Amino acid sequence: MIERIDAEKCIGCGQCVRLCPLDALRLNEEGKAYIAYPEDCMTCFICERACPSGALYVHPFKEQLPSVFPDSDA
Ligand code: SF4
Ligand code: SF4
């Protein structure tokens, strides 16, 4: 699940928009990438790895894990 694009770091190169296989990203009028279709993201990390400025953050899990797991011995 793509979580965040840091607009301060984004240099507007468009790499993430071009490479996303699910076409989930777009550039806005200011030339900054944004997540247009977050539900389409398949967590492939291509955008994060391709971003030259480290502006993208992809989280491996769609849902937050519970903060405490049940104790298996309980
Ligand atoms: S992780 Fe993959 S599917 Fe998700 S936005 Fe990035 S390139 Fe697209
Ligand atoms: S690859 Fe990174 S720097 Fe380039 S448009 Fe996407 S978020 Fe911005």
Spatial separation of the terminal alpha carbons: 33 Å
Instruction: Give, in order, the helices and strands.
Output: EHEEHE
- By secondary-structure content and strand pairing, the structural class works out as alpha+beta
CATH class type: Alpha Beta
Question: Which residues form runs of ≥5 with pLDDT under 50?
Answer: none
Named CATH topology: Alpha-Beta Plaits
Bound molecules: iron/sulfur cluster
Shape annotation:
elongated
What does this structure look like?
With 74 residues, the chain is of the alpha+beta class. It has a single domain (2-58), classed as Alpha-Beta Plaits (2-Layer Sandwich), CATH 3.30.70.20. Helix content is 14%, strand content 18%. The protein has helices spanning 15-19, 46-50, and strands at residues 2-5, 25-27, 33-35, 56-58. Strands 1-4 form a two-stranded antiparallel sheet. The longest helix has 5 residues, at 15-19. It is elongated. Residues 2, 20-22, 24-25, 41-47, 58 line the site of one iron/sulfur cluster (SF4). The site of one iron/sulfur cluster has 15 residues, from helix 1.
Reconstruct the topology from this structure:
Blueprint: E1 2-5, H1 15-19, E2 25-27, E3 33-35, H2 46-50, E4 56-58
Antiparallel strand pairs: 1-4, 2-3
The structure holds iron/sulfur cluster (2 copies).
One iron/sulfur cluster (SF4) binds next to helix 2.
